[in-house]
What we know:
Blueprint (H helix, E strand, L loop, with lengths): L7 H10 L2 H9 L8 H11 L5 E6 L6 H12 L2 E2 L4 E7 L11 H19 L2 H20 L4 H14 L5 E7 L23 E6 L5
Parallel strand pairs: 1-5, 3-4
Antiparallel strand pairs: 2-3
Helix pairs in contact: 1-3, 3-4, 5-6, 5-7, 6-7
Amino acid sequence: MRKHLYPPRFEQTIRERLTGEVKNWLIENKSWDKLGPYELQLIDLMSDDMKPKFISVKGTVGIGKSTFLRYVTSICEGMEASDFTLYSLYVDPFELGDDDPTMLSIFNFFRGKIAHISATHLDASAHRIVLETASRYDEMIKKNPQETSYLIEFVSLSCRLFKNSNVRLAFVFDNLDLLPSKTGLPPLKWSSAMFRKTEDIHGKQAT
Length: 207
């Protein structure tokens, strides 16, 4: 990240905000000094609580948005603190092995990830609820593959199913604007009305 693209005061503010175990975890993993303020800002957004967020990264083509997202989510993967473990679930629909990505292919990606996490961290009863919920949404999406809200609901409900555990989930979607319109997944329709909070990180700052 080129440091001249942001004011020093902004970096100071972000570093002061990230205190406690998140900061300690980054220091122990030798990431604290390597990260700029926008990378730290995204980590702060992903780790602060269990409220689902849609994080929108904006910028021109080729400016480094996907690299930025992949880098930060890879750092956060499996972040462990005394009271939570963070799982950052990054998906680029065009990397799922499907030439024509659909809402179902994105759902199946998250379904597999969430099932694995629940098997690791939840008791048998709670894990069964996660699997039953995923099966129910699988049927709903197959019957109406254009209904975007089903995937949104599944993501939000997944976060709630883990609320009594020490797991926090962060979902990061990349390149949704490149999906064919027939998938029913234009990102601008995924508004803060569906998620509790919407955050923008501009691509020109994330290079």
